[in-house]
Amino acid sequence: MLYSSPQEYLDCPHKAVTLFGMSGVGKTTVTEKLPKDRWFHYSVDYRIGTRYLGEEINDTFKRLAMGEPTLARLLRADAIYIGSNIQIDNLAPLSTYIGKVGNSELGGLPLEEFKRRQALHRQAELQSLLDIPAFIAKAQEIYGYPHTLIDSGGSLIEVIDLDDPRDPVVTALTQNTALVYIEASRDLLAEIIKRGIAHPKPMYFRSSFFDEALARYLVQEGLEDAKQIVPNSFVAYVLEALVADRAPRYRRLAEQHGYIVSAAEISDINNEADFDELVARAIARRLSAAPKDARGGTSDPATADPEQPKAMPAHSQSS
Fold it and tell me: I need a labelling partner for 197 at 20 to 30 A (CA). Which of 30, 135, 148, 302 fits?
């Protein structure tokens, strides 16, 4: 939703804010700073890993365990239980499930299986995003939280169509929440890339981007098949291109439908008042950048260019 003034946001009795941007820009900083008794925390990745991919993740781990005779015997006898213990602040089971493409002896997945999991992740992410309005209502009606903060995860931009004015996810988010893009500086983006290269993590790719990146990588490395890929090497190779591909699309989403704050501003948040003040400033920046109509009023802020330069787990959602 777009506010007519900063004061309208500040006076809103039931705030709902969706944070989005690259992993590492400070979304967790906000969740840790907001009061747990006033802000409900909805993590899209947590919802994916519990509600929509939970059984798939557990079955994958059981298949691995069945490869070890002792564990297989205990599983068949129902003597042990193997299951994901995913937490909002520990998404390792989901990341492990997504995996990396490449040589199986180095922990990689066959290309076909990798793409299958990517497709399942896409559907799970779409549904988890579409669940947001219902959870905002639950947070208020069941748990009594006046406000909701949504951590959309880094791949929100990969599952929406910015050219479709009726995109269902964008519609659900803009009708029920204020979209706030946390934009990283060049230095922070460089640091995010550096960290990602040093410690490669599984990630979700838009299928067209992945196919093009994979084809380039195979040619560059002189490889004939994805089975020859060193998994971490491909993730490190593709990370810089992924960051560069996402950044302008994040900004476009914010320019069309929301607000922009910097990662530096996010790092200065210490409490709820700081967060509300930051969102209010972002609203003011958008409004001040919007062109004036002939009557001296402000035209649709969705057409404006933001001035901005190029907090909290509360009761977490149930699965």
Answer: 30
